[in-house]
Structure formats: C-alpha cells, structure tokens
Specification:
Blueprint (H helix, E strand, L loop, with lengths): L1 E12 L12 E13 L10 H16 L2 E2 L9 H12 L8 E9 L5 E4 L2
Parallel strand pairs: 1-3
Antiparallel strand pairs: 1-2, 2-4, 4-5
C-alpha cells in the first residue's frame, strides 16, 4: 500500500552555464509529493500523516522555503533538487513498517520530475 503527502515551498534559483530564461535569477512555488510504501500496522495506519509532516518540514521545507537554492544544491535544476531531497529523506523514512517509495517535485503546474529507486 502507498501513502502520500504534499507540501509547497517558495524558493529562488538560477542555472549556471545555461542559455535561456532560467540563467536569470527567478523563483517558483514548488510542490513536493512524498510517497511511502508499507503495510498497515496494528494502529490501522502505515504511518501517521503528522509524522510525515514533521519530518519533511524539518528536513526539507525549513531548509528550502524562501531560500536561494544555489546555496544548497549545485546547479539547482528540478532534477538535482529532487535528488538532494531524496538523499535527505531516504535514511529518515526507513522504518520497519514503511519506506520512502517515490518523490515528485513540481517546478510549475505542468512541469515536474519524479524519482524512485
């Protein structure tokens, strides 16, 4: 079974050695979906939504929201930001009952990247 939670954050970035609009400083309202997989435990849940929220806000949102992403992620493309998020969350969402399955990051309403191992 899968359980997902979505988050939003606002951040600025610019792409280095890129020929296009994104070489200029600009920002996005990003949307992030975290999906975990696991079995339902004796409480009737895979994991409490509040625990997902607490972990993601502490590990990701507090670091990225209203920040300049170039200071955190080298060449902050959607792909590189997503890989950074995965590396931050994968060791944390490693419970006996559930594991990180997939994450998706929307840079715009119609442009997004998804990663899973």
């Amino acid at each position: 079974m899968f359980i997902s939670k979505e988050f939003t954050f606002d951040a600025a970035h610019q792409l280095v050695n890129y020929n296009g609009k994104c070489e200029n400083l600009h920002g996005h309202t990003y949307k992030l979906r975290i999906t975990l997989t696991g079995d339902i435990d004796k409480s009737g849940m895979i994991i409490d939504f509040n625990l997902i929220k607490k972990i993601v806000e502490e590990k990701i949102i507090e670091k990225l929201d209203h920040n300049f992403l170039n200071n955190i992620v080298a060449q902050p493309t959607a792909e590189n930001i997503l890989l950074w998020i995965w590396k931050e969350l994968y060791p944390v969402f490693n419970f006996p009952s559930c594991k990180l399955y997939e994450i998706t990051l929307w840079e715009t309403e119609n442009s997004f990247v998804t990663y899973r191992e």
